[in-house]
């Protein structure tokens, strides 16, 4: 559920919210206690009160109090003429919705009380399920946190016993994504031994059948398959982007320390080296430090250094040592900041180095893969959950630890997107018991309270900013010497030079990033005429705090036009993060130079995107485009953005091939990713008060980052760096298509009405590449984005596949304009073209509602009421209405879009895709609005009947709505029942 993003409430609204939360929490606690009574448990503290004793009396008291709080909330709801965000987006609006649902619950209980004099706790349990109670507690806790007030200090949801809330009727093998597809030929015989025919006499027509012996899949193939499913494209991005330590930086961690005793000078090693060598300091070491002090660089240094392995070998005392590392990155993809990404990466590293442990990690999967044929293995899709990965990791540790020692290096715990306490406990649990003697974990994080409480006095640790003075001094001295003129000054004015370096390092106060940025600025502004004194003046003028330094570089050192260009770059980066996260393409989270190259220019490239033909780009053109992008990015962000190679092997300094050379270096440069150089930079842009607003104010009024990136995709396809090739491998183009179509959906500013032309150009360009089957009039690349080939062989033809695909991607404005344009041309179509327009094809309305209640495992958006309304209001030959009969693509059964909607709702209830007390504007409120549109605007058949299937019996349209109301008792569902019956 999306969090309720509400502004602070005050006055009457605050009083109404507080009153409701107090009433609702008291009701929740009593209902929870009554459930205990029904189970025969001893009464707990929440059920021992001086008030009414029977279940009915207690709930009657709550009903009266809740009724008053409901009226108070109603009084502070926005009026019908007020234009504002969705009411559920406000805290009073969310509370009002939950209050209405609770009143429906209490009304049902009241009705039972009037008809059943023996109503008791057991009767209540039958009316008010434990799943419902659990959801209520969670929802009230979330609303209380949003209120930021001490509503009830004793309120605690975690004590609710939830052993298993999965519905008993829900089968484990039920399909999760769509209806069951039809059986393939021979599928009903699966499980039987396969036979093959052998000719008895050559040339004769007599055959015998003999059993086919299936050979087990080789271990190496199974191992490689598992590794492939664990990997993800951004798995090594962060480690590659972390700055490598400057020469001799951090060497102190492995060098002897000198301490003076009473009589002699004694030598000892750094505590970290001692920790690596043995068990005396415990299994966990914590590295902390200020933002920008170099923690990630240190972790990479330690992870890669041969001295680390030497000391770990001493600790292992003859046993092999296994090392693995992970770098959390809050600016990266979802996997780079999640527990699933952590576990997948660690498992991949361990199993890559030691394939023999794979059967222990995934015993069931291993056995299954050993028995599958190549075709079955290719069709298999493994989706790793956190529970699966935790079990696998534990399985690996169980077999690894007796045979070898393990050391993990984990950077950036503060950048983990989740419960920090939980991730701390996860790492601590790895070291419990005897395993702690064979496992070491080096962790790094900012000095946040949650980490200080866990590690500061419990494990050995170091504060990095206290130990890097000499490193920063050496870094600055060496970098200054790289400039010929400054090196000459340092040689002839050594005292002044040393004073300048020391003053700069002192001002940095342990923040390595500050030294790096300040030095870049000093060298950029260096003037031979002023010498070292001028450099000192430049340094003295720089602010000491990082945020102030960013402000100086970004806002004060650039004029209005330069800030507008910077705002464009920032908008493009933000737009890509949003889209890549939505479609879960972790490799596309950061834009490449080649993507920037076609997104930075204005109207000239808009025209080229539509008018140009496909041609391989030349090295000279690629050089010019990439150089322009690099120059603009570096100048407008003053070094706050970095350009990183996609592979460690090509991570040398950025340069381009000469015009006459081949394209290999240009392709490598074009693929480089543009990212923030440090988390503090991104945090400043995103979280520092006033920065985002100022950037928005500097953005050109007609600029839309999503439209630019849609255009960029088209121009990349029209200017390929590789030799042009026509083929039918849609998988090669699909990631880019998904990005482009999703960017198209987010377009808002389009004063020149370019979206439709650009989207159509995506279709035209891919169609140009597509190696079409001339004997198939329905052949089109977009068809294969709607379903697998094996279904097309038996499904009704799709005669407008790209428009269907655009509908699935939620392109409301594009679909509207395209329907109007195609309808206008209807009379000009040839008879042959009209024959292709079969009525059996799945209509646009069905695609628009395919993800009505859930977008489980899909790149497509939830069904949009605006798009549905558009389709219902523009019914025509190419867009028939909700009662139009068609043949279902997957099951080959007769359907209508309205029947499909009803099936979605029935299935969503069974699969648990509908939430109780749903206050997400994109949840129940959204799909309920779509159902209303079908009935009120589209004239959907209220007497429609949904046929039975493998899980549910036959049911009427009214029955579906009543089933939902009975299950959830939500105000939206009650309104739908009234609408259907009315």
Radius of gyration: 33 Å
Name the CATH homologous superfamily of the largest domain. Answer: P-loop containing nucleotide triphosphate hydrolases
Q: What is the share of helical residues?
A: 40-55%
CATH third-level topology of the largest domain: Rossmann fold
Show unreliable segments. Answer: 1-5, 41-51, 157-193, 648-653
Looking at the structure, what is the overall shape? Answer: globular
Strand content: 5-15%
Please count the helical segments: 43
**Name given to the CATH architecture of the largest domain:** 3-Layer(aba) Sandwich
How is the biggest beta sheet arranged?
5 strands, parallel
Give the structural class: alpha/beta
How far from one another are the termini? 32 Å
* Count of folded domains: 5
CATH class of the largest domain: Alpha Beta
* Total strand segments: 15
**Could you tell me the mean pLDDT?**
84
Enumerate the strands of the largest sheet in spatial order, edge to edge or round the barrel. 6-7-8-5-9
Keywords:
single chain; 982 residues; alpha/beta; Rossmann fold; 5 domains; 5-stranded parallel beta sheet; two-stranded antiparallel ribbon; 43 helices; globular; disordered N terminus
Structure description:
The protein is α/β, with parallel strands linked by helices. It folds into five domains: about 150 residues, no CATH class; about 230 residues, Rossmann fold (3-Layer(aba) Sandwich); about 70 residues, no CATH class; about 230 residues, no CATH class; about 200 residues, no CATH class. It contains 43 helices and 15 strands. The strands form six sheets. A five-stranded parallel β-sheet has the order 6-7-8-5-9, with helices on both faces. Helix 20 runs parallel beside helix 22 and helix 39 runs parallel beside helix 41. The longest helix has 28 residues. The chain is globular and about 95 Å long.
């Amino acid at each position: 559920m999306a969090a309720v993003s509400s502004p602070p409430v005050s006055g009457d609204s605050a009083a109404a919210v507080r009153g409701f939360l107090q009433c609702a929490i008291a009701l929740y606690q009593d209902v929870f206690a009554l459930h205990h009574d029904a189970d025969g448990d001893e009464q707990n503290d929440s059920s021992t009160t001086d008030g009414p004793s029977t279940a009915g009396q207690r709930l009657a008291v709550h009903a009266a109090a809740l009724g008053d709080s409901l009226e108070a909330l109603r009084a502070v709801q926005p009026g019908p003429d007020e234009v504002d965000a969705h009411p559920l987006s406000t805290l009073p609006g969310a509370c009002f919705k939950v209050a209405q649902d609770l009143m429906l619950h209490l009304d049902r209980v009241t009705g039972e009380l009037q008809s059943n004099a023996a109503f008791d706790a057991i009767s209540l349990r039958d009316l008010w399920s434990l799943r419902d109670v659990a959801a209520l507690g969670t929802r009230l806790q979330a609303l209380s946190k949003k209120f930021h007030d001490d509503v009830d200090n004793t309120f605690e949801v975690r004590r609710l016993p939830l052993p298993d809330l999965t519905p008993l009727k829900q089968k484990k093998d039920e399909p999760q994504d769509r209806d069951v597809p039809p059986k393939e030929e021979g599928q009903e015989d699966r499980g039987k031994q396969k036979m093959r025919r052998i000719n008895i006499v050559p040339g004769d027509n007599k055959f015998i059948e003999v059993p086919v012996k299936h050979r087990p899949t080789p271990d190496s193939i199974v191992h490689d398959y598992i590794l492939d499913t664990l990997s993800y494209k951004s798995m090594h991005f962060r480690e590659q982007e972390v700055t490598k330590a400057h020469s001799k930086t951090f060497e102190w961690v492995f060098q002897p320390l000198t301490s003076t005793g009473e009589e002699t000078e004694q030598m000892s090693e750094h505590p970290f080296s001692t920790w690596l060598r043995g068990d005396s300091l415990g299994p966990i070491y914590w590295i902390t430090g200020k933002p920008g002090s170099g923690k990630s660089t240190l972790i990479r240094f330690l992870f890669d250094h041969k001295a680390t392995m030497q000391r770990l070998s001493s600790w292992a005392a003859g046993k092999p040592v296994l090392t693995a590392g992970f770098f959390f990155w809050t600016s990266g993809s979802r996997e780079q900041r999640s527990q699933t990404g952590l576990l997948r990466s660690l498992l991949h590293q361990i199993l890559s180095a030691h394939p023999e442990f794979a059967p222990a990690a995934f015993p069931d999967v291993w056995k299954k893969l050993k028995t599958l044929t190549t075709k079955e293995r290719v069709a298999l899709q493994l989706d790793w959950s956190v529970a699966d990965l935790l079990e696998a990791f534990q399985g690996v540790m169980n077999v690894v630890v007796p045979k070898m020692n393990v050391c993990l290096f984990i950077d950036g715990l503060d950048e983990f997107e989740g419960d920090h306490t939980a991730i701390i406990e996860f790492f601590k649990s790895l070291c419990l018991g005897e395993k702690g003697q064979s496992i070491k974990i080096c962790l790094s994080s900012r000095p946040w309270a949650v980490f200080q409480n866990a590690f500061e006095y419990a494990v050995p640790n170091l504060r990095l900013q206290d130990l890097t003075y000499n490193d920063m001094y050496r870094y600055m001295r060496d970098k200054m010497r790289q400039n010929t003129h400054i090196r000459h000054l340092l040689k002839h004015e050594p005292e002044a030079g040393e004073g300048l370096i020391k003053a700069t390092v002192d001002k940095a106060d342990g923040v390595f990033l500050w030294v790096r940025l300040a030095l870049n600025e000093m060298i950029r502004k260096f003037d031979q005429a002023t010498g070292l004194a001028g450099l000192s003046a430049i340094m003295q003028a720089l602010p000491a705090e990082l945020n102030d330094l960013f402000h100086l570089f970004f806002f004060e050192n650039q004029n209005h036009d330069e800030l507008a260009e910077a705002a464009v770059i920032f908008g493009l980066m933000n737009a890509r993060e949003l889209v890549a996260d939505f479609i879960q393409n972790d490799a596309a989270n950061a834009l490449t130079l080649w993507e920037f190259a076609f997104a930075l220019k204005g109207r000239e490239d808009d025209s080229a995107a539509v008018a140009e033909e496909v041609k391989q780009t030349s090295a000279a053109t690629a050089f010019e485009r990439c150089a322009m992008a690099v120059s603009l990015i570096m100048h407008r962000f003053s070094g706050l953005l970095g350009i990183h190679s996609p592979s460690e092997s090509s991570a040398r300094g950025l340069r381009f091939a000469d015009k006459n050379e081949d394209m290999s270096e240009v392709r490598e440069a074009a693929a480089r990713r543009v990212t923030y150089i440090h988390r503090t930079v991104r945090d400043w842009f995103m979280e520092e008060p006033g920065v985002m607003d100022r950037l928005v104010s500097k953005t050109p009024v007609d600029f839309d980052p999503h439209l630019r990136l849609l255009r960029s995709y088209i121009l990349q396809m029209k200017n390929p760096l590789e030799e042009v090739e026509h083929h039918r491998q849609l998988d090669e183009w699909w990631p880019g298509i998904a990005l482009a179509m999703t960017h198209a959906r987010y377009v808002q500013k389009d004063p020149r009405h370019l979206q439709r032309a650009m989207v159509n150009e995506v279709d035209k360009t891919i169609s140009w590449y597509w190696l079409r089957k001339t004997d198939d009039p329905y052949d089109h690349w977009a068809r294969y984005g709607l379903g697998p080939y094996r279904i097309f062989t038996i499904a009704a033809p799709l005669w407008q596949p790209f428009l269907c695909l655009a509908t699935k991607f939620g392109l409301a404005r594009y679909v509207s304009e395209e329907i109007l344009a195609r309808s206008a041309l209807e009379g000009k179509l040839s008879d042959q073209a009209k024959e292709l327009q079969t009525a059996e094809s799945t209509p646009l309305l069905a695609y628009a509602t395919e993800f009505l209640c859930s977008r489980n495992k899909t790149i497509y958006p939830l069904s949009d009421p605006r798009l549905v309304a558009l389709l219902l209001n523009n019914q025509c030959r190419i867009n028939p209405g909700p009662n139009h009969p068609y043949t279902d693509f997957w099951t080959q059964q007769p359907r209508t879009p309205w029947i499909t909607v009803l099936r979605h709702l029935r299935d969503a209830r069974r699969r648990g895709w509908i939430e109780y007390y749903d206050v997400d504007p994109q949840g129940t409120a959204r799909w309920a609005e779509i159902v209303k549109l079908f009935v009120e605007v589209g004239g959907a058949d209220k007497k429609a009947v949904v046929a039975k299937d493998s899980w549910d019996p036959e049911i009427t349209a009214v029955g579906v709505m009543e089933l939902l109301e009975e299950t959830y008792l939500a105000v939206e569902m009650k309104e739908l029942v009234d609408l259907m019956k009315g």
